[in-house]
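Design request, C-alpha cells follow.
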C-alpha cells in the first residue's frame, strides 16, 4: 500500500421437539440389551423412520431457503429494490436492509446477461459474468440462532429459524458483459433466516452471531459506478463513488502505461489488467479494506484480494482501492501510487502472506518510482536527512516499523525502496526480481537468508553493509 507521499502500507436449530423425539427413540434402543430379534427389527424401523423424518425436514428447509436465495439473487441483479425489501424480515436491522437495497440500486440493469451501459458511456453499472447466492456445503456443527432473536421471531409468528451457511459466488465481466473477466470469487457468510408458512425471510448475517463480519462488497456502498479501460491483458475496470471523477479520469489515462511499466520489470506472466476502486469518504475505504495487512492512516491506496491459489498461481478478487487522500494527489504522484499497487497485483501469487515488507514494499516502491527522480533525496527525503545526520539505518527495516503513521514508517518505506534501488543499481533488475521471488516465498528466516545468497552471492550481513555504504555515497 502506498501513502500520499508515495509510501505503501498497502449463520433455529431444528425444532427441539423433533430432536428430542430422535433422542428418545435412540435412548430406548440403547437400554434394550435383551431385546429379541423381532424387537430389534421393530426398533431399527423406528430409528429409520425418525431419520427419514429428519432428512425430509432438512431437505424442505434447504429447498425453502434456496428459493429465498434465488429470489435475492434475481432481485439484486435486476435492480428491484421493492422485491429485495419484500424478502427481508421485519426484524432485519437498518444496516442489513440498506446493504441489499443499495446493491439493487447500484446493479440496476447490470445483471449477468446484461450488456450494461458502461461500455458505451464514460460510466455505468458494474457488470457481472456470474452472480449468485447459494447454500454452502459444510461439515461444521450448526450454529444456533441466538435466544433473544429466536424469541422475537417466534413472537412475530415464525415457525422455524435457521443460521444457514451461504456463499456469494460472482465474477466481474464475461463474454456477454465485457469487463475484467476475472476468476469466480467466493464469499462465505451466514444468513439468519426465518420461516412464515411456506415463505422464508432474511433476518441478518454474521453481525447477529458474534462471528467475523461479512466482508462489504463494492456494490453495497451507495453511488457505485464503473467504467472500462483497455490494458495489455484485456479490459480493466475502474469502479468509483461520487466526488471522485477527476481521479477516475486520471487513472484512465495512466492505467495502460502503468500496466506496461510493471510488465517491463515483472515480465508478462501476470494478468496485466486490474480492478481499481476510487473512494471519497474514509468510511468507504475502511469498509472495503477492513483487516488488510499494513494499512496505515497516511495511505493513498491498498491492494486487497479474496483468495490465492499458490500452486495454480491464481489470485481472485484483487482490487486496488484508493483512499480519499488520493483525490488530492498531483497526477505524477498518483501514477507512482498506481504502479506501486499494480506491482503487488502482479506479484501476488508468488508472495507468501507473511513475506517481509522490506522486500514486498521495497520492490513495489522501486517500480512505482522508477524514472521519477534524479537523486536519492528526491525519492527518499526523510531517509536522506537521517543519513546526513549520521543515522544511517543499521539493518533491513522490520515489519513493525511499517505499521505506524509517523517518522518511523516513513523511514521504513524509504529504506525498503532504497534497498531495492541499490540492488537494481549494482546487480540489475533481473537479480532484484530473483531476490524478491526467493525472499518473499517463505516465512522461514533461514530460507530467506539463503535466497539472498542465491540471488546476490552475498549473505544478509554483507548486503546490509554494502547497502549502507551505497546510501552514504548517494547522499554524500
Amino acid at each position: 500500500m502506498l501513502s500520499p507521499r508515495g509510501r505503501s502500507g498497502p449463520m433455529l436449530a431444528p425444532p427441539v421437539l423433533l430432536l428430542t423425539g430422535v433422542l428418545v427413540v435412540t435412548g430406548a434402543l440403547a437400554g434394550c440389551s435383551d431385546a429379541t430379534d423381532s424387537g430389534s427389527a421393530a426398533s431399527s424401523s423406528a430409528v429409520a423412520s425418525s431419520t427419514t423424518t429428519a432428512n425430509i425436514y432438512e431437505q424442505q428447509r434447504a429447498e425453502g431457503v434456496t428459493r429465498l436465495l434465488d429470489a435475492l439473487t434475481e432481485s439484486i441483479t435486476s435492480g428491484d429494490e421493492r422485491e429485495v425489501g419484500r424478502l427481508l424480515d421485519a426484524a432485519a436491522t437498518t444496516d442489513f436492509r440498506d446493504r441489499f437495497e443499495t446493491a439493487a440500486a447500484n446493479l440496476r440493469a447490470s445483471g449477468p446477461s446484461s450488456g450494461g451501459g458502461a461500455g458505451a458511456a464514460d460510466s455505468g453499472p458494474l457488470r457481472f459474468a456470474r452472480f449468485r447466492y447459494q447454500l454452502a456445503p459444510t461439515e461444521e456443527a450448526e450454529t444456533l440462532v441466538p435466544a433473544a432473536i429466536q424469541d422475537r421471531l417466534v413472537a412475530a409468528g415464525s415457525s422455524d429459524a435457521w443460521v444457514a451457511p451461504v456463499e456469494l459466488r460472482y465474477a466481474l465481466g464475461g463474454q456477454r458483459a465485457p469487463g475484467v473477466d476475472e476468476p469466480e470469487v467466493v464469499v462465505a457468510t451466514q444468513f439468519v433466516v426465518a420461516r412464515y408458512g411456506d415463505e422464508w425471510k432474511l433476518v441478518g448475517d454474521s453481525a447477529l452471531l458474534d462471528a467475523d463480519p461479512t466482508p462489504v462488497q463494492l456494490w453495497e456502498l451507495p453511488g457505485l459506478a464503473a467504467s472500462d479501460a483497455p490494458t495489455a491483458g484485456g479490459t480493466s475496470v475502474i469502479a468509483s463513488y461520487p466526488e471522485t471523477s477527476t481521479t477516475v479520469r486520471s487513472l484512465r489515462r495512466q492505467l495502460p502505461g502503468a500496466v506496461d511499466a510493471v510488465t517491463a520489470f515483472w515480465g508478462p506472466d501476470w494478468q496485466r489488467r486490474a480492478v481499481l476502486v476510487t473512494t471519497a469518504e474514509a468510511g468507504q475505504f475502511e469498509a472495503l479494506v477492513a483487516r488488510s495487512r499494513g494499512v496505515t492512516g497516511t495511505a493513498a491506496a491498498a491492494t486487497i484480494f479474496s483468495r490465492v491459489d499458490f500452486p495454480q498461481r491464481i489470485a481472485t478478487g484483487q482490487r486496488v482501492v484508493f483512499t480519499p487522500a488520493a483525490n488530492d494527489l498531483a497526477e505524477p504522484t498518483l501514477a507512482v501510487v498506481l504502479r506501486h499497487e499494480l506491482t503487488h497485483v502482479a506479484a501476488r501469487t508468488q508472495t507468501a502472506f507473511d513475506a517481509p515488507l522490506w522486500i514486498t514494499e521495497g520492490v513495489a516502491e522501486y517500480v512505482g518510482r522508477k524514472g521519477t527522480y534524479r537523486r536519492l533525496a528526491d525519492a527518499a527525503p526523510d531517509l536522506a536527512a537521517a543519513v546526513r545526520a549520521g543515522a544511517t539505518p543499521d539493518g533491513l527495516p522490520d515489519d513493525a516499523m511499517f505499521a505506524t503513521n509517523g517518522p518511523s514508517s516513513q523511514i521504513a518505506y524509504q529504506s525498503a525502496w532504497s534497498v531495492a534501488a541499490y540492488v537494481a543499481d549494482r546487480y540489475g533488475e533481473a537479480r532484484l526480481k530473483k531476490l524478491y521471488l526467493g525472499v518473499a516465498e517463505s516465512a522461514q528466516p533461514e530460507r530467506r537468508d539463503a535466497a539472498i545468497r542465491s540471488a546476490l552471492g552475498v549473505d544478509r550481513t554483507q548486503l546490509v553493509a554494502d547497502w549502507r555504504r551505497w546510501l552514504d555515497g548517494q547522499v554524500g
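Comment from the thread starter after seeing the answer: thanks! The first strand starts at residue 128 and ends at 135.
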